[in-house]
Amino acid sequence: MISSPEAPDDGDRHADDVSPEEFLRYLLRGSDGKVTAEVVAAAREEYGIPRSTLFRLVARFRKTQRTSSLKPRKRGTQEGMVRLDPRTERIIAEQVEGFWLKKEKPSFAALMRRIGEVCLTEGLSPPHRSTVQRRVSELIPIAAARKRGEREIEAASTPSPGQLSVAKPNALWQIDHTIVDVVVVDEQYRQPIGRPVLTIAIDVCTRMVAGFHLSLAAPSRTSVGLCLLHAVYDKAAWLDERGIDIPWPVAGLPAVLHCDNGAEFRSRALAGACKEYGIKLLFRPPATPRFGGHVERLIGTMMGAVHLLPGTTFSNVKIRGDYDSEGRATFTLRELEKWIALEIVGKYHQRIHASLLRPPLAVWRERQGEVDFDLPPDRMAFWTSFLPGDRRRLLKDGIHLEKIRYWSDALSRDVGRGAELEIKYDPRDLSRIFVRQSDGRFVEARYRNLAYPPVSWWEWKHAKKRLRDQGRRELQEDVIFAAIAKQRQIEDIAASSSAKARRSAARRPTKQDQKESGHVTAIDLAKSVHSDDDTEFWD
């Protein structure tokens, strides 16, 4: 064995200790890079490398000076080399790109059949299944998943090198909606009426839940506003009304509200309200749930807890199996709201968070001195700013909205001026609107005919459509209200057997809803100004 000052002698180095290429490099160092008879003999003895192969390896090594170039190549097709007929390769590539990478997500078996048919048409032998599988596996995973519409695979293949870092509490909130994985029952018959929608906001810095709103209505700018109303102001009275004696100290305006691209977040009403109160709206890129990861994980945590409740629908049909979600449902909407509140303040806020390594409540208390609690002084005005609006002219008999006439004595000073006034309305309850007067303050206007019951926007629109379908073109408010009364009678009769009718009845506005400004109750709706005639105004 050749030895040198740089290489161990024969007694210190064996074939079991080093790879063939390392061994050959030591041999060449000892022979000044020459393939001597001793080098040939040693290579044959230790690794069985033929003389001709050794000369090829050494020639390659002299060009690169890299140890890997001395590694003997395996017999057979080298990595990266293709032995298929170029025409067959072309067919595979065309069918993978033009057939398999489609939103319809054709199966691999369908791809094999398509390739086989095209090959036979061109007089070629179809490729083996493993050959096509290798070509598919060589695709870039994220690009292939995006073309096939496979969101889960795309998300798993997308790199996430960093994480969202927030300097202090209330610097950034994330907000989102989800359909709750549990069926609720109505208050009267205790029969199933469907799954509610949860709107929830989280403070990214402390991972505290800022607030939430639970409703039977679809996600809307109103539900966003009610969630923020609950999140921004003190929740002591709200918790006390539900008999919950656990602190929930989150309050204050967020600097940034991070949300997805849903229509309710893109509304002009939400944009205007956020601008009015200095909240910056930040939208995450479309179809990228990872950019809202904090609220997504929070929703996952809440739904995991909900899956233990009677009436749960679980996360998918396969897991649910033959479980009768509607038959086992027991929670009303208000009971579920209280249960979720307890889950948040009694468990989630108290447990050690995986990212913080501390409970969110402890982090908030430690850093709450950094929070700016300079809140909007008028809570009703804050909530009203998130409502949809329009402009209407004040007539002698009041303001007309959707065939309904509204009046307030405070409007009399503006009659005859001919100017259009800005109005705001709550789609869940059309019995009142909020009118901005010329001095910039809002006044509440109610039905001119106070005998009419509170109705929702959905009920009103549905009644008008029914009447028009019956050929009624000239509609008056008394006719529409009469139609709604009849529809409610039908719903009440059907409520004992129809979940849809029970759900419709449960969504009707009530006087209690007016007091609570929706299902978020015990909010101090302080008025900022009173006029001489005791009419209530809001700045």
Automatic annotation (TrEMBL):
One MF term in the entry's GO annotations: nucleic acid binding
Recorded superkingdom: Bacteria
GO process annotations (BP): DNA integration
Location of region: Disordered: 495-539
PROSITE patterns linked to this entry: INTEGRASE
Residue ranges occupied by any Integrase catalytic domain in the UniProt entry: 165-368
Signal peptide start-end: none
Compositionally biased intervals (Basic residues): 500-509
Name of the featured protein: Transposase
Species name: Antarcticimicrobium luteum
